[in-house]
Amino acid sequence: MLPPRCASCQRVGAALCASCVQALVWVEEPICPQCGQPQEETAVCNRCRRRPLSLHIRAALRFRATLPETIHQFKYYKKFGLASHLADLMVRAWPQWAMPVDWVLPIPLHAERRRERGYNQSALLAHHLAAQLGLPMTEKALRRVRPTQVQARLTAEERLHNVQGAFSAEPNVAGRRILLVDDVCTTGSTLEAAAQTLLGAGALSVAAYCLARA
Ligand SMILES: [Zn+2]
Ligand SMILES: [Zn+2]
User: What CA–CA distance (Å, rounded) separates 67 from 69?
Assistant: First the structure.
C-alpha cells in the first residue's frame, strides 16, 4: 500500500499532515448564538434577526486556510479515509459547543447523488463523531425526498426555496433531541429545512454541528 499523502499539501506521510492541521482556524467566541457565525460580539446577527432559525448551528473550524482543499478532496475525490481525521477535529472542538443530544443524524444526500458519489460525506463524519462521543447515530430517520440544485451559485433567498420540502422524517424522531451533522455550513438553509421537517415530525429540539463554517 502506498504511504498516505496529505489531502491539502500532498506531502507524503499522513492523510492530513501536522503543519496543515496547525494552520487550521478554529471557530471561537464571539459568535451569533443562532447561526454560529463568528463576529465582533455575542449578539443575534442581522440575518438571524430578519429571519430567525429554528435551530442553533455550531461548527468546529472556519472554512479557511488548508480546510477548503481538504474538504474538496474528502467530498469529490473519494478520500473517505479523511473522515476519521476530520471527525477528530470536530471532537476536539465539541466541549466548547456541546449541546444535549439523543440522536445524531447526518444531512442525507438524495439517493441519486449518493449513487453518483458513492458515499455521503456527512454520514461518514457523523458516524465517527457519534462513536467518539458515545451517542447513537442513524441514517434512517431523515431522508432527502427531492433532488435539489447545488447550492453554491444560489443566493440566500434561492437556497431556502431550493431546499424547502426536500426532506422527510420518520415518526420515531418524536420527543428526541436531534443533532444534525454536515460538512460545511454556508447560509444554514439546508440545515434549517431539515430542522423544520424534524420539528414538524415532533422532534423535541434540533441543533447542528458542522465541520466548517463558511
Ligand atoms: Zn499538509
Ligand atoms: Zn446569525
Answer: 6
> What pLDDT does residue 147 have?
81
Distance 33 CA to ligand 2 centre (A): 7
Instruction: Please give the distance, rounded to the nearest whole angstrom, from the Cα atom of residue 38 to the centre of ligand 1.
Output: 25
User: What is the three-class DSSP state of 61?
Assistant: strand
Strands 142-144 and 167-169, by their bridges, are antiparallel
| Amino acid present at 94 | W
- Tell me if residue 40 falls in helix, strand or coil: coil
18-213 CATH, one of 1.10.3470, 3.40.1350, 3.30.1890, 3.40.50: 3.40.50
Residue pair 53/188 in contact by the 8 Å Cβ criterion: yes
User: What CA–CA distance (Å, rounded) separates 151 from 205?
Assistant: 25
- Cα–Cα dist 53/62, whole Å: 20
% of the chain at pLDDT higher than 70: 100
